[in-house]
Every structure is written in C-alpha cells, then in structure tokens.
Amino acid sequence: MWQYHLYNALLTSDLALPYLDLHPIAGDEWPVAVTMAESAPTPTTWADGAWQDYPLRVPNAAFHVWRAQAATGWAFRLGYGNPDYQAHFTIRNDRQAVWVEWQARAVDSADAFVLACRLLAGPVIPYVLRLAGQCALHGSVVDTPRGSIAFVGPAGLGKSTLATTCAQRGWPTVADDVVVLTTKEDHFLAQPGPPTRHLWPTTLATLQEESDRHPAIHPRTVKRHVEAQASTALGPTTFSRKAQRLHAIFLLDPFVDAKDVTQIEVLPAAAALPALLRNRYGLVDTPPEARAHELRQLAALLKQITVYRMVRPNHPDTHLEVVDLIQEMLRQ
Questions:
Q1: What is the pTM of this model?
Q2: Helices H, strands E: what count in the chain?
C-alpha cells in the first residue's frame, strides 16, 4: 500500500500514484482509501438503491454524475469520458473511500491509467473534501512574506500563469488550480496540492521551457501538465509543501480590452460572498446540507481576510504588471 498527502487528504492506495507526495504531513488529514480497480466494478455494498442522475452546476458533455442511496447518506459516482478513454470514480457515503475504474479507447492502457490519476488528484479528491465539509475554490495559491494569497476565477483567466510568475519572483506555489481551505484556531489555511502546474505553451515559451517536453493534460488540449521534477525553470524549489495561512484573495475579472492599466480594488463582503460561491471548485455541486456549510465557511472567511477585485487589460504582459502591483501592496 502507498500513502500520499494531497491537499488535506491522506490517500492510501493499492497502486502507486504518479507525482503525488509520498510522505504524509502529520496533522488532521481526511483519510481516503483509494482502490485503483481498472475494470472491476464498484462493490454492491456501497449503494442500497439505484444510481440516479445528479445535476451538474456547469454543463459538460464529457462529464456525468450519479448518486445512490446508501445505508446512511448518499454515495456519488463521477464519470468522465471521450473517444480517448473513460473513467469512473465512486465515492462511498462516508467520504473515506474512492473506487476508480478506467478504460482505454484511443490511448494505450498506461496513458489511460495516468489520465485517471490526474482526474483523481484534480476534480475528484477536492470534491470528496467538499462533501466532507471542507471548502475548495477554483484558483491558485502562492506563498508570500505576508502569508499566502489566492488568485480565484473561472477557467482561462491566467490563474496558473500568475502563480508561475510569482514563483519566478521567489513566491512558491502552494497549489495550482484548486484552493482547499481548512480552519486552524482563528485563521484559514491553504492546503498544498501536487507539485504540478497546468500551463499553456505560450506561458512555457516565456520561461524558455520547451512545451514538447511535457505531456498534454489530456489528448484533446495543448495545455501542458508540468511536473516539478521534469522542469528546468519550475523545479521543486518553486513549490511550498506546507499549509500556509491565507492572507488575501484576488478575484479575477474577465480581461477588458478598453483598459490600459490593471486596477485592484477591495471588494465588499456583500459582493465577495456570491463571487466566491460562483467560483467553488468543480462542475458539480454538493448536496444542500454541505452547501449550507460551505456558505457558512465562506462567510467566516470574509471576516478574516480581504478580497480584492482585479480588472486587467488583455495584453501579454498583464501578469507581470499584476505581480508588480501586488508586490508593492504587500510592502505597505
């Protein structure tokens, strides 16, 4: 058996999983037993009733969710599929076990396994943690001298690029793409994700890193899966492997062509709360009872940290200007 630390989860897997941290961080991690079953079906004891469609928060043709009544609560099944491969992840009703099935189609079996592992680390485990009562936002986190800051917003707004630029300035990346928040005493901690980044070839080119050295996230995108050990410009020292106290959140607005300078302004809590709710991580929502807990967590978060709204022009050097502005703000 192998054990891994991922966000605030302690995974125990029957197979070795690529690129995750082997040595668990001591603390109060949420335990998750992972069975990499390939084509073996989920145990029938995990669900008492029939599997029913569960609505998506964001429609996606390649993604499907079901749930089934269990002895107590609900079990969930997340399905991903396209002409290249398919994978199913069944989450037991106690949120402490995940059964993983995958099938190769147009890719070979080894590649299908790696793709299933990426989905496990990306959408699946953060959803398990959300079901278990933790908070996960769509964003990237970096560690600064004043504490960690998170860039939060929808896909395509440069969160990973900003985190990478910060790493080049000496602010290590805590997590890329997923911001898992937990509470400790009177503050919130951003939990470390895997030491990987998802970057566009244009971003890698600015770092003088050849994109062809890194695999695509999946066969139908040019975005690259960049592991710390395989990168010359973004090695292991550009990642922080410890949970960091959250200092601020920067909400990214869509790029605006009409503006020629970046503007950063404090967002009142009344506007920040619905914005953070819209940017919870994942395509699928949690059940109403867990959703209410997420709302209370975010409301408590807004009493402790400042949320900023960022409006940026649409030009290639935007991320450099943003980091310069944040660096100046943190000096004050």
A1: 0.94
A2: 7, 18
